[in-house]
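Predict the 3D structure for this chain.
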Amino acid sequence: MFTFFDRLGALKLSDQQLFRVRIFFYLGWIIINLLQAGFTRLIFDEAYYWVCSTELDWGHYHHPPFISLMIRAGYSLFPSELGVRLFFVLGTTGGIFLLEKLLLKKDLLLFYAILISIVSFQVVGILAAPDIALFFLSVTFYLLFRRFLNDNNFWITALLALNTALLLYAKYHGIILIAFSFLFNFRFLISKSRTWIWIFLSILLFTPHLWWQFSNNFPTFRFHIFERPGKGIFNLVNLIDFIPGQLLVTGPLAGFVMFWAITKLNIHQRFEKTMLFNLVAMYIFFQLIAIYHHIEANWTIIGFAPLIVLSHKAMVEQPQIRKWLFRLLPFSLLLAIVFRGLLLFPGLIKESRIYHELGGYKTFSKELLSVVGDYPVVFTERYQPTSQFAFYSGGHPTFTLNPTQMSEFDFMSMEANLQGQNVMIVSSRKWNTNMDSIITIRGVRYYTKVENFRSYKKVLLKPELITTNNQHTFRLSMENHYPYPITFLENEIMPTMVGYILYQQGKEIEKNDSVFNAVYFNQANYVDVILNTLEKGDYQIQFILKTGWFPSTRNSRLISFTVN
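Done. Predicted structure below.
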């Protein structure tokens, strides 16, 4: 078998043969991925991004808005899984096509072999994820940046600025590519007038998103920088897992060959050095972040363009390394077939994460609709399964009282539309003794009808810390972010209480969800909450609202404080 693939790797094709191989590769890539996209159920994040796309805005809670626009465009053409993923499949294919233009020494057979060998790229390449948009835009950024370095042309500068803004609209990780490209070429660029035009236009184009963040109290920045689960906690496992994880995500088998090839690379041009600097700096950056943060393997897809281009050049120059890529090719293809099969048939391994994310939600939605009828559904679960129901129910009015974290549901109009209505509360936990139950393909769900539904997730509790003699007082004021006045008396049968959750080293150590009745905010501008029995140490506190028997909602930012 090795002999056959050794010969394949050593083939020298004529221009006509290369043209046929090229057509075969791109047709095969796009047809297989379109079929896979159309017949694979949505994973959690895709369903959530689809929810975001139903109300387009200049920003969303977890990510910038470009992914929502892509989904909205595709779904308007094909209201199905294929529509959700359409422009991401096209984006992956287009990114590969443009990546050819960046090759430093062209060997298309080797180039296609590298792409096929990156199993994760084949699998993730069909998904509606910000990383796919980021991959496409990183390729176009490199193409434009190469021209920008050598061409004093206003339109190249303007296009680069547009590309820069779109990178940030796709995912904030785009700043890594932008910053490192600028940093490496700092001495060359700083004296060029076109550099400042590029920076000015980029900021101008990104201003609508920055204004959205400002208008909403910077929710995305606060989440990613301060409030993301596990943030700021040293975890040796995260630190150790990073490098092996990156070897796997770039292959898993070909990753070893690609990094080995880059160690043998000889480069001389400024642009080649920029790509290498960006690649190395990106990995160092994420390795440092991993000290206090879990790094998702897909975050480094922004480095795929330089990784593929540079490893391709090295393998063209190093036939012995190229040989190993082709020898591993059949095993990579086998792994790709296995993972693609698991996406299509997630029930084959019901204990897998794949099944957990996409198995049975279409059936689950039909089962749930049979008991909730036409009533809007309010889940008490995380936003991911809620989003799956919203999609597979055909856009049934859906909201979540997610008790663990905020999501895009907290910024959409659905909650305000449901106020005062009769709704069906659905949960995997029996919050109330009056709840009925149904056994679904996704397990038991409890449900009950609630009249005059009221929730207060858009109420912001603003704590001011006052410390005297080691007594910590939190002076709470309230901001109403609804387009209508609230008194907390809208449903007197289910009173709303103010409470708090106390954390230490990222873990919840105390929860008190009934410190005082929220109606006191009608009588005073602020209410004091006093903590004076804590042991020495560093703490974080978050204030919550709990309405009746509903799960509590988190209504303040995390506040850090120290007890001496």
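The CA atoms of residues 210 and 218 lie 8 Å apart.
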